[in-house]
Amino acid sequence: MGTTGMLMLVLILAISLIIFLTIRLKIHAFVALLTACLFIGFTTGMPLDKMLKSIELGMGGFLGMLAPILALGAIVGKMMEVSGGAERLSRTMIKALGKRNSHWAMMIVGYICGIPVFFQVGIVLLMPLLFCVAIEAGMSLVTVGIPMIIGLLTVHCIVPPHPAAMAVAVGLKADVGKVILYGLIVGLPAAALAGPIFGKLVGNKFKLNPPEHLCKAEPTPEENLPPFGITLFTILFPLLLMISKTILEFALGKAHPCMAYVNFIGDPVTALFLAVILSYWTLGLNRGMDMERIRKFSEIAIGPMAAILLIIGASGAFNKILMDSGIGAAIKSLLMEWHINPLVLAWCVAAIMRFAVGGATIAMITAVGLVVPLLPLYPGLDPALVAVAIGTGSIGFSHVNDPGFWFVKEYFGMPMGDLFKTYTLSSTIASVAGLITLLIFSQFIS
């Protein structure tokens, strides 16, 4: 076996080690990724000091930008949660679209609410609303619930500032504004097909048996909810700033004197910082909260980010050690002999990792390390498209090794077989539809 073959064997063993440690031994993903880093370093003969330096630089390089972004994004999501913003969005959308289209309204609500909050948080936040909507509209809980779940999951995987999506954008050195814009464009038809359309087809064939306390949830009085316009503006504000930066750069050119200010305001850190300040007013002080309550909500939001940051930092170390050990060059050498669309390849890598390791976050950030060596082979390829390809690949194939799968099962109260036929199948439809949409979309912008 040649050098390339040996290095690829080491890579396969390292990925298998991650899967074994996280799935079989239930070891935390942070420890599993660091173990894989050390395994690669020792088996490829890296000098000890270089091995440690790669881990250190890899973690620091990823977290340097991501840490403040993720913390600020979590605060915006928390402010939306405690203010009743999600309930306001759902009520307004259902009123605008009509009760007959409640399944479409819940998909849009999930799509919008999924921008600032995590997938699991979005489920907790929106599930009580789901029952109110389904009863009022006279629809099956599955018909309304699947669109909501898919809306949350799609945005979670492909649109920054979600942790994995942002880590992918940073790892590929992609324009974050483009990733957001492309992700929203590609994700919407995928979520529509796998959500309202699929949910309508299967809605009456399955039943939910949710926890009893959720079924008894009472709607919040109208006067206690924030206005629709200001809620929507607050959620979309950081995305608008980041997308505007990309659009103005295209319209004015990078050398324009105004671009220094545009780049500053449209930077993800600045955009999310301004969004936090805005949310403190629109969803906090303006709703009768004092700064002490807002401070406590901010602390609650930031706390759970520690585990996410550690996993992302370890994935940065994994990606760095792949490159420094020579495995990155081996991947590049091997793939030069293949003739496959790079977006399809990126999607396949993410989908395989998603199926193997379970969680979308670890699948995406592990996939980056395998895809980065490809980029020099396609100098004209926009990294933002690759980022979206990885995101769409990570949406589907959720099954028993995915924590999100069990989270959905707990809240939906479905038998395992029915969950495979609804949630797993719908997420996979969204993943495949996202890839097809991305391939079509890439033809128009290339």
Give the tags:
446 residues, mainly alpha, 21 helices, 0% strand, globular
> What is the number of E strands?
0
What is the chain-wise order of helices and strands?
HHHHHHHHHHHHHHHHHHHHH
Computed structural class: mainly alpha
* First-to-last CA distance: 39 Å
Assembly of the depicted chains: single chain
Q: Count every helix, treating DSSP H or I runs of 4 or more residues as helices.
A: 21
Please state roughly what percent of the residues sit in beta strands, choosing from under 5%, 5-15%, 15-25%, 25-35%, 35-45% or over 45%.
Answer: under 5%
Outline type: globular
Roughly what is the average pLDDT, rounded to an integer? 85
Which percent range fits the helix content?
Answer: over 70%
Major beta sheet summary: none
The tally of structural domains comes to 1
Low-confidence stretches: none
Q: What is the C-alpha radius of gyration, as a whole number of Å?
A: 22 Å
Pfam families: GntP_permease
Transmembrane segments: 6-23, 30-48, 60-83, 104-131, 137-159, 179-198, 228-248, 260-281, 301-322, 343-372, 384-401, 422-445
InterPro entries: Glcn_transporter (IPR003474)
Keywords: Membrane, Transmembrane, Transmembrane helix
Summed up:
The chain is mainly α. Helix content is 77%, strand content 0%. The chain crosses the membrane at residues 6-23, 30-48, 60-83, 104-131, 137-159, 179-198, 228-248, 260-281, 301-322, 343-372, 384-401, 422-445.
